[in-house]
C-alpha cells in the first residue's frame, strides 16, 4: 500500500476517513493463516515483499498474490514453476513469466524511484545464465537499466577484456560464475564500482555444488566485492538495485 498516496487522497477529500481506516486495518501485516503478508515492507525497505515460490503450493501462491494485488503492489515471484504461472495467468492477464530464470512478474504501478546508473551482469559461462537472468529480471523489475554480457569467463579472458568499455560504464556489476569462481576477482580488478559476486552450483564434483566458487569469491584479493549465497541471483539483483538508487 502506498501510504503517501492514501494520505493525499484523504487530504483532497477523494476518500473518506472511514474508508481510509478500512484500508489501513490490515497494517502492518495481514494474516492469511498460512502466510503473513508484510504490508509495511515497501515503507521500510523501498520495495514490496517478494514471493519465494519454491516449496509453496499453487493455492498458497495464488492466495498471496490475490491479497497483494488488492493493494496494487508490483508483484515479483522467484523460483516459480511454469505450471503455477499458467494458473496465475488465467486469473491475472498482466502476469508475465521468464521461463529460464523462473521469474514471475505482475506490474500494477509505475516504479517511481529509478536507478541512477546502469547495472551490468556478467557470467563466466552459458550454464550460469539461469542464475544471471534471475538477477537481471529482478533488477529490471525494480526500476533499473540493466545490461548483460554473458559467457566471458577467465578461460578465454580476451572475451571479457573486449567488453571493457561496457564494464567500466556500469555503476554496479553482478559477476556470476561457477566452477572455480574466479570471474569476480578479475572484474573487481578492472573497475572502481561495487561488484556483487554470485557463485553458482555449475561445475564437476569438486565444485561441491557451488561451495568451491563461494569460497573463492569470499577469499578474493580484489577489493570492493560482496558475495551472495550460491545460485542467489535474486539477492544480487536486489542488492544491486539498492546500491544503484543511492544518491
TrEMBL record:
GO terms for biological process: 'de novo' IMP biosynthetic process. Residues 117-246 form the PurE domain. SUPFAM superfamilies: N5-CAIR mutase (phosphoribosylaminoimidazole carboxylase, PurE). It comes from the Bacteria. InterPro entries: P2CMN_synthase_LarB (IPR039476), PurE_dom (IPR000031). Pfam families: AIRC. SMART domains: AIRC (SM01001). GO terms for molecular function: hydrolase activity. NCBIfam families: LarB. This is Nickel pincer cofactor biosynthesis protein LarB. It comes from Romboutsia maritimum.
Amino acid at each position: 500500500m502506498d501510504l503517501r498516496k492514501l494520505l493525499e487522497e484523504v487530504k483532497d477529500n477523494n476518500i473518506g476517513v472511514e474508508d481510509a481506516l478500512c484500508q489501513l486495518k490490515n497494517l502492518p501485516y495481514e494474516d492469511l493463516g498460512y502466510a503473513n503478508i508484510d504490508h509495511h515492507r515497501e515503507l521500510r525497505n523501498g520495495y514490496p515483499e517478494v514471493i519465494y515460490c519454491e516449496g509453496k503450493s499453487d493455492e498458497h501462491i495464488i492466495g498471496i498474490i490475490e491479497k497483494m494485488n488488492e493493494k496494487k503492489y508490483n508483484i515479483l515471484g522467484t523460483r516459480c514453476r511454469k505450471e503455477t504461472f499458467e494458473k496465475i495467468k488465467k486469473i491475472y492477464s498482466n502476469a508475465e513469466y521468464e521461463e529460464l530464470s523462473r521469474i514471475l512478474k505482475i506490474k500494477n504501478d509505475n516504479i517511481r524511484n529509478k536507478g541512477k546508473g546502469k547495472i551490468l551482469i556478467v557470467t563466466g559461462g552459458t550454464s550460469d545464465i539461469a542464475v544471471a537472468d534471475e538477477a537481471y529480471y529482478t533488477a529490471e523489475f525494480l526500476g533499473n537499466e540493466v545490461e548483460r554480457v554473458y559467457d566471458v569467463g577467465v578461460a578465454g579472458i580476451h572475451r571479457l577484456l573486449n567488453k571493457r568499455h561496457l564494464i567500466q560504464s556500469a555503476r554496479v556489476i553482478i559477476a556470476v560464475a561457477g566452477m572455480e569462481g574466479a570471474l569476480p576477482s578479475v572484474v573487481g580488478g578492472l573497475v572502481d564500482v561495487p561488484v556483487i559476486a554470485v557463485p553458482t552450483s555449475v561445475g564437476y564434483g569438486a565444485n561441491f555444488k557451488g561451495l568451491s566458487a563461494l569460497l573463492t569469491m569470499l577469499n578474493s584479493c580484489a577489493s570492493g566485492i560482496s558475495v551472495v549465497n550460491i545460485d542467489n541471483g535474486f539477492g544480487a539483483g536486489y542488492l544491486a538495485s539498492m546500491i544503484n538508487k543511492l544518491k
